[in-house]
Write a structure and sequence with these properties.
The complex is a heterodimer of chains A (327) and B (122).
Chain A (H helix, E strand, L loop, with lengths): L1 E2 L5 H26 L7 E5 L5 E5 L1 H22 L5 H26 L15 H21 L2 E2 L20 E9 L2 H21 L6 H13 L1 E7 L2 E5 L6 E5 L3 E9 L1 H5 L3 E4 L9 E4 L3 E8 L4 E5 L3 H18 L1
Helix pairs in contact in A: 1-2, 1-3, 1-4, 2-3, 3-4, 5-6
Chain B lengths: L1 E4 L7 H15 L7 E2 L2 H8 L3 H13 L3 E4 L3 E4 L3 H26 L3 H12 L2
Antiparallel strand pairs in B: 2-4, 3-4
The chains are: A alpha+beta (327), B mainly alpha (122).
Chain lengths: 327, 122
């Protein structure tokens, strides 16, 4: 179930903190239950062979445990304020999972020490970490399920596009080739030529593998064909790989935006934006220029820089609206 | 390159496809040397038969607008610009004749436009 608008912050944060809070309360309850039987000091550190080599007061271990639980809780709450569903779900799952693992494992190291007189004989209980791992993964997964999915709005500074006019029975296909910026081609060609030269000078047959692989990579990835049709958006290299396909039913919003390859994506290729309004978006940035930007229903943002991107984006928006009416 | 076809129209699909390419050459939105999508891919995207696309491409090749190469797909021919310029000159001359005939009949611009629109959808 995917919502079209961001649910209230309260709902997202509640989903994010539910399991870390539960883990914190349960750990507190277990500690309270065990308090009378905990030896003083307890073993709190073990050497490589699993023999205890560090000891602490039960109060110090309890504070550490509760402290970790609170940190996980705060981290999960902060994750719940993220603007995209993907970020909120993955960050909160990480916080919740890590918290669940640490609390369970720590309690697990205390369990065999209950009521023991000489804790220096209590070996590190390895199964505690296995159980911790299982509970941690379960906490992370459950947290990702508790946070609703929503389609991200267009990032600020990125405008939507007007849909292309489509007759009721009309079919239109827009298709264009995007080519890597000239400096990128020069660099790739030089690298191929240089390694080829090396291989020839050294007279080594297997060294030829490097320029061959580079050459193949150049053919495969230096240009892509971008196609918008009734099925959605398709980007593919001449050899069929790399490729990206966004089905029309997976499109939540379409935009066209100016993209700077170096400043925002750190170069040319299939990349993730590290800066700028599209931060976190990934896609084919073979040069700077206008890009078709697609926001998926899952919240992910894909883009491809291509000449005449406005026409492609408008057609995709036209099909998106047609598909939305049919639903 | 934007190709529009309407399966509900009476005009054969391959004609519509060829007309779409011609219109864009005339508008200057595609130029000599540009590679059109492979026939198989285009047929799949448009949801029409591969042979229909090939028939459209072949028509454009016969008009000197496209070069078809095995394995390399369809490339807009170097002579395409000249052909589309010639087509536009023919259209301009025909329009001039229509204008004179319409003025002799005393038609207003709107009445002429209506006549053209009616005839154009055929």
């Amino acid at each position: 179930m995917i919502e079209q608008e961001r649910p209230s912050s309260g709902r997202v944060v509640m989903g994010a903190v539910a399991l870390p809070l539960l883990m914190l309360l349960l750990s507190g309850a277990v500690l309270a239950l065990w308090w009378g039987q905990l030896p003083d000091p307890v073993a709190s550190h073990w050497d490589a062979a699993g023999r205890p080599d560090g000891f602490s007061s039960p109060a110090a271990v309890a504070s550490l445990l509760m402290g970790l639980g609170v940190v996980a809780l705060i981290a999960a709450a902060w994750a719940g304020t993220a603007s995209t569903s993907t970020a909120a779900r993955s960050l909160a799952a990480l916080a919740s999972g890590t918290g669940g693992f640490l609390l369970t494992s720590l309690l697990g190291t205390l369990a065999p020490q209950l009521g023991v007189g000489d804790v220096s004989t209590v070996m590190l209980p390895l199964p505690a970490f296995v159980v911790g791992l299982v509970i941690g993964v379960a906490c992370g997964y459950a947290t990702s399920l508790l946070i609703p999915r929503w389609a991200s709005p267009l990032p600020q500074g990125v405008d939507g596009v007007r849909p292309a006019e489509l007759g009721p029975t009309e079919v239109a296909v827009w298709s264009r080739v995007a080519l890597t910026a000239t400096p990128g081609i020069v660099i790739a060609a030089s690298a191929t030529a240089l390694t080829l030269l090396f291989a020839l000078v050294l007279g080594s047959a297997w060294m030829l593998v490097v320029p061959l692989a580079l050459g193949l990579l150049m053919v495969a990835a230096l240009s892509v064909r971008v196609t918008v049709g009734p099925q959605g958006l398709r980007v593919a290299g001449p050899l069929g790989w790399p490729r990206a396909v966004v089905g029309i039913d997976d499109v939540a919003a379409v935009a066209a935006a100016e993209v700077r390859a170096m400043a925002e994506f750190g170069g040319w290729g299939y990349r993730v934006a590290v800066r700028g309004p599209l931060q976190g978006a990934k896609g084919f940035v073979l040069r700077s220029g206008r890009a078709i930007v697609v926001i998926r229903r899952s919240g992910g943002v894909e883009l491809v820089v291509v000449d005449d991107a406005g026409t492609g984006a408008a057609l995709l928006e036209g099909y998106r609206q047609r598909a939305a009416q049919l639903r | 390159m934007l190709i529009r076809i309407d399966p509900a129209s009476d005009v054969p699909l391959y004609e519509q496809l060829a007309a779409s390419v011609r219109a864009q050459l005339a508008a200057g939105s595609i130029a000599a040397g540009e590679r059109l999508p492979g026939a198989r891919d285009l047929a799949q995207s448009l949801g029409i038969n591969l042979h229909t696309v090939l028939r459209g491409y072949n028509l454009l090749r016969d008009e000197g607008l496209l070069e078809l190469r095995r394995g390399r797909g369809a490339v807009v021919a170097g002579s395409a610009d000249a052909v589309s310029t010639a087509d536009r000159a023919t259209l301009a001359a025909a329009l001039e004749e229509v204008r004179r005939a319409a003025q002799r009949l005393g038609l207003s611009a709107d009445e002429l436009a209506t006549l053209v629109t009616k005839g154009y959808g055929r």
